[in-house]
Each structure stands twice: as C-alpha cells, then as structure tokens.
Design goal:
Blueprint (H helix, E strand, L loop, with lengths): L5 H10 L5 H15 L4 H9 L2 H7 L7 H15 L4 H9 L2 H5 L8 H17 L1 H10 L1 H7 L5 H15 L5 H7 L2 H11 L2 H25 L2 H11 L3 H17 L4 H4 L3 H7 L5 H17 L1 H9 L2 H11 L3 H13 L6 H7 L2 H9 L4 H14 L4 H6 L2 H11 L8 H15 L3 H9 L2 H5 L9 H11 L49 H13 L17 E2 L9 E2 L2 H25 L1
Antiparallel strand pairs: 1-2
Helix pairs in contact: 1-2, 1-4, 2-5, 5-8, 6-8, 8-9, 8-11, 10-11, 11-14, 12-14, 13-14, 14-15, 14-16, 15-16, 16-19, 18-19, 19-20, 19-22, 21-22, 22-25, 24-25, 24-27, 25-27, 25-28, 27-28, 28-31
Length: about 575
Amino acid sequence: MMAAGVPKALVALLVHPNSLTAAKQWACRTLGQLTDGSESSRCQAIVAAGAVPALLQGLVSDSPADVQAAAALALAELTGSPEPEISRSACAAGGVQLLVPLLSSPHEEARRSAVAVLRNLAADSEECRAALAASALPALVQLLRDADPATKANAAHTLTRVSDDQVGHSAAIVQHGALPHLMHLLGRGDAEQQQAAAGAVHALSMDGQAAAAAAAGAVGRLVHLLRRADYDGLMADAALALDSLALEHPECCADAAAAIPSLVSLLASCDQKACSNAAAALAHIVSEDAEAASAAAQHGAVAALVRAAQRSTEASTLQELMWALSQIATEPGAGQQLEAAGGVLLLVQLLRHNDAGVQHSTAWAVRFFAHTIPAQLVAAGAICALLGALHSGTSGPDPEPGLQQAAAEALGQLAAGSLRRSRFIVASGGIAALRPLLDEEEAQRAAAWALRQLAVVEPSALEGVPDASDSESESSWEDERSSGSDEWHSDAGSEQDGPEGGTEEAQQRQQQEQQQQRHCTVCGATRAAGVKLRLCAGCRTPGLLFCSTECQRQAWPSHRAECREAQAAARRKN
C-alpha cells in the first residue's frame, strides 16, 4: 500500500531547483514504478500530486539526458494507465512538443520511452494525433529502422494511431517512406513488430493507401505471415490487414486468395477477434474473385464457418461468419456441405437472433443457399423465420433496413419455381408481410420481385406491384454466380400448351390460371413488355412461365426436384 504523501514528496524532489541529477532520476523512476500495473486510484493520486507537469519539466532540452529518459519512462507508465484524462492533460501541457525531439536522441532509452509515451497519447487525443502528423512523421518513420525492437514496434503502433484519423495523415505517412520499412517488419521482424506493422497496413489501407500498400508487397507478406504465425493475436491482425486490402483494393484479391487455406484454418480459433477477422477477409476475397470462391469451398470453408458460428457468442463475429457463408453459398456442393455440417438448422436459428445485423447477414446466406437446398431450408422452418425477420427489420429499437431487402429476396428465391413453397409462403402471411415493403425505398424492388413469384399461386399478390417493364429489371436479384443446368429443355412449346391428357375441366382450370399469370416467374417480365412467355418444357407446370432460357436456368436449382417429380408422375400415369 502506498503512503498518501509519497507521490507529493517525489514530485517535490523532481521540481526542486537544487535537487541533484541522480535524485531527479531516482524520483522519476520511482514514480514510474509506482504507476506500473497500478490500480486506477493510485494513478489518480499520482496525477493529483502534480506528477504530469513535473515529469514534462524533466523533458526540457536543458535537462540531463538521464533525467529526460527517466521522465519519459515514467510518463510512458502513467499515460499507459486506463485513465484517458492523463494522456489528454499531458498533451494539453505540451507533451508532444517536448517528446518529439527525444525521438532523435542518441540515447536508446530516451527514444524507446519517448515513442512509448507518444503511442499512448495518440490513442486518447485527437489534438495529439494532429500534432504528431505535423511534426513527428519523419522521426517516427526513421524509428521503424531503430536497433531497439520495442522502439520499432511502438513507432509502428504510433503511426497506426495517427493514420486512423482519416484526415489525410496516411498519405503523408506514405510520402515520408514508411511502407518499405513496414514491409521489412512484416517479413523479418519479431512477432510484436509484425503485429504492429500489420496494424499499420490495415490503418493505411482504410485511409486510402491500399493500392500503395499492395504495390509495396503487403499482400504476399501477409499471406506468408498467416501461413507461419503461431499465435492468434498476430494472425488476427494479419487477417484484418488482408481484409482491408481486399476491401479497398479489389485488384489484389487474386493474390490474396493464396491465404484462403490459412484463413479457413483460423476460423477454428477460439479467439473471437481472430475468427471474425478471418471470416471478413475470406468474404471480401471470394466476393471479388470467382476462383477464390471455388477454392474456399474446396478447402472446407462452409463447414469451418458453420462450426465457428456454432461456437461463437458474439453478434459481431456471427455477422461476419454469415456474411462469408453467403459469399460461397452458390458454389457447387456448398449446399450439401452446409447440410452435412448441420448448418441448415443453424441458419434458421440465427434468423431469429436478437441482433438485427446477424439476422441481416444470415438472410443473405439463406437467400443464396435457396438456389440449391430450398426444400431443406423450408423443412427447417426458414419461411416462418424469414417472415419474423421481415417484421423485426421494421420494428424494435434499432431497425435494420437492409434486413428487409435480404429477407424479401430469400422468400422470393424460395418461392421461385415451386408451387408448393409458394403456397406455403402465401398461407403463412407472406403477401401481407411483403406488401408494405413496396413503400420502402431500399426493399421495394426485392419485395416486388418476391410478390411476382407468389403471384403464381395467388394473383392478388400483384396488386400494387409495378410492371417489370416500367421499372428497373429485377434480374439483378438473381445470383450472378449461380450456374444454370443443361437439364432445362429448349423453348419448345408456348404458355398456351397445357399438359397432355387430363379432363376437360382440369384443362379449363389450367387455362384460367395461365390467363391470370402472364409474367416471367424469374424476372417478372410481362407480355405487355413484348416478350413471349413459355412453360417449363420438362414438367409444363401451369403458371410457371419464363421469358428466356436464361431465366429457366436461373430458376432450375430450386425447381429441379419438383420438375423431376412431376415428370416421374406423368410417366407413371402414362
């Protein structure tokens, strides 16, 4: 337990004009030792005794070098406490101006301590970051080459915090030549230096310098680092840096794809940050590169993402995992991998999550998996869960407008090509849930597209829905990466052609249905737009109309099972 008068006595010794250099040095070191690892109350007592201005006085240019180094070390301990007011007061008292000259000191300890203080000050004070950007960048960049390992790491950390301000500081950091030194730390530094350099690359990339970082060789070094790093903290920061590069400079995604096996492995980490960053990097890489998406599926990304989501308890991590899953959902075999990993029920459960962001990213995953495993999703309860998500997207303390669009698209995809699923959605209140979205700017196109799918079984769904020929085509809602199938037959036969055989009454009923439904099941195009609508040439199901072979192919993944079942029934009947 520290006596109440100790800090005051040390401060008095430090500021007394007649104190010996050795005494001042001892007072500084003792204040630092009292602060190191101390609880908040002790730090506050030290500050209340006037330690901050006293230590800053020890930094003035006419102070002995040993006193300067000791004062900087004590300030590093003090500003590293969980009390941001300490850093702000040090900055307000001119701490940056006093510390910057020490960055070029010939004394290693002075440089090490000064940059440690500046790292702490930059974390808590915007004014400090601005002052550093104005006066300290050349010295900080030079310290990236310092002989002392801790000094190099702290210089990189300080540059990271300066560049985080996103007010043009990053461009100045790059102009002062930081990138080559950061690349050296990424490739040859120790673990602490590599982690600091990865953080700097992330911050610079997010502030407009991603192309410059990629050109300097950041992608290859980060890929190599992910392959051989042996602890989660370093891998988490490397994955975050790679994610930033992929997001801000998509041209590097083809090279970044080499990290996919490492990112998939990192998904197994118990560290939520590492897992989340790996998922985010994976999502951005595969979203920009089709070959990368295929590679991710082949390396077991679907199962790894499902297992990570089953373990995760943090909403932010779940959101990243589901978003990554949505980006590879249409790859060949992804649906079967999801089912084998127990992911179908997981998706339905996450649609009911209490976090709208998790619901949002999960709804996108369901929307794309609905291409290949719609029956499994419906059997697990996806339709009711999506309708619930639609409601939660418009209510609650924090509505998520994007959730409405994602859920509407998912419902539309589940309905596309299946009378049975369309009837289920209608019977579950789907039309009533979708219709209000026609007045929502972000979700209206998705809602209109979904309602057109449901109009196959309920013509009233089209009430209030603009004709597809009068608005921007909804074809963009179809997944661009989903592959068609040659099992769709040619366009032989028109929408007037009913099934062979059957009673006259049944044929009349079919004709009435067809007269009511004169729009493409996939894109919503109508005869009024000058297109010719045709039935599926395989099952010739009444009401399933297509304007082109492309629309047939887009609907095929979800219609395949029902089409084959109808054809088999027709053969048995004949």
